[in-house]
Design goal:
about 375 residues, alpha/beta, 7-stranded mixed sheet, 3-stranded parallel sheet, globular
């Protein structure tokens, strides 16, 4: 892992360990809540991407337990990409008087009224991974424009001096996700003027099957042999894109980007079917969300953890933690997801991928 990324992860871990000590220094006069009996509402947006259920939820639950001496409680709900359902879930948590909410929004604009309701009830809201609108109290995510820039730079590297030979298909994320706009802004800042964009899509609900349908249309209109590369905003869609390209008869797949370092994405990279993904260390992001939630529930300032202020469409100077990212290719699988224990060699190098793993020195 790059040194700057490791330093950021270490710093966040250290600040989390310091939290209980900070809490113990409070008093009734200072407005700091001393009790560990804290209920955290955790609302995650969907289960299409493996990360939320497999990585984020367990880390947040574990960290809440650590920061509350095992007495804290997490009330969890997944909206399954349904904005109306998530609004009901948030309203229920407010009505049940949870102490603080960690919110990964399905639709950043649509959830604003729910955030307003929480604010009026005196319940702080930490926007998690996606910058929800409304009077949120804190935000943790990755530098999402940087994610797009990393993807764009990797695609240019893969294309080399043939960057303008053929057409690029760009598969962006859902319009309802504010992060998708930031990824798009970042990648366009790198690729504009350096590649020929043949087709461009905003993919409804980030669904792989929608990416497959979009890619099938692009192949039909451009011709499979004319596609020099594909920008895919995440790994799930990259899988759908690979499905369409294989069905389209391509003997050799063009370079394809991704994001999230999902197991299937890493395996496609091992097999040479996907060029790269963006590795985002979920543990420090999730830990930061848990830490900010407990600080807010206890009435403690976020100054010790927040290293940035971010503006949304409706809120200014939101205290934020932005975690660095790194491009993952065949060259650094050992130094990223394996070294950090995200996956084991056995998980990546199943029977289907054993020969490819051996060629990369992984097995």
């Amino acid at each position: 892992m790059k040194a700057h990324l490791r330093r950021a992860v270490t710093a966040l871990a250290a600040s989390a360990l310091a939290l209980p000590l900070a809490a113990c220094g409070g008093s009734e006069d200072s407005g700091v809540r001393m009790s560990d009996d804290i209920t955290v509402g955790l609302l995650l947006p969907e289960n299409q991407a493996a990360r939320y259920e497999k990585f984020d939820k367990p880390v947040i639950e574990e960290k809440i337990g650590q920061l509350t001496n095992g007495k804290g409680k997490v009330v969890y709900a997944n909206a399954r990409q349904d904005a109306a359902l998530q609004m009901k879930q948030l309203e229920t948590m407010v009505d049940d008087q949870v102490d603080v909410v960690i919110l990964g929004a399905v639709d950043a604009k649509a959830i604003a009224a729910g955030v307003e309701k929480a604010d009026k009830a005196g319940i702080p809201v930490v926007a998690f991974d996606r910058l929800a609108e409304g009077p949120i109290d804190a935000y943790t995510s990755f530098d999402n424009e940087e994610v797009g820039r990393v993807q764009g730079e990797a695609l240019l590297k893969a294309l080399g001096d043939k960057a303008k030979d053929g057409q690029i298909v760009m598969m962006h994320g859902a319009l309802t996700d504010p992060n998708a706009a930031l990824f798009k802004k970042g990648v366009k800042s790198v690729l504009d003027g350096k590649v020929n964009v043949g087709k461009e899509y905003d993919t409804k609900e980030w669904k792989p099957e929608n990416a497959t349908a979009n890619m099938e249309e692009a192949i039909s209109e451009l011709g499979a042999d004319a596609i020099a590369g594909v920008y895919s905003a995440n790994d799930g869609m990259a899988g759908g894109i690979v499905t369409a390209l294989k069905a389209g008869g391509l003997g050799k797949l063009p370079p394809i980007t991704g994001q999230d370092a999902e197991l299937a994405g890493v395996q496609r990279i091992v097999a040479g079917e996907q060029y790269m993904t963006v590795y985002k260390p979920y543990a420090p992001e999730a830990s930061a969300a848990a830490e900010m939630a407990i600080l807010l529930a206890r009435g403690i300032s976020l100054g010790a953890i927040a290293q940035a202020d971010v503006d949304s469409a409706t809120a200014q100077d939101v205290p934020s933690v932005l975690v660095p990212v790194v491009a993952l290719t065949q060259d650094n699988i050992k130094d990223t997801v394996l070294q950090d224990g995200v996956y084991s060699v056995d998980e990546i190098c199943t029977e289907k991928y054993k020969d490819d793993c051996a060629a990369l020195g992984l097995a």
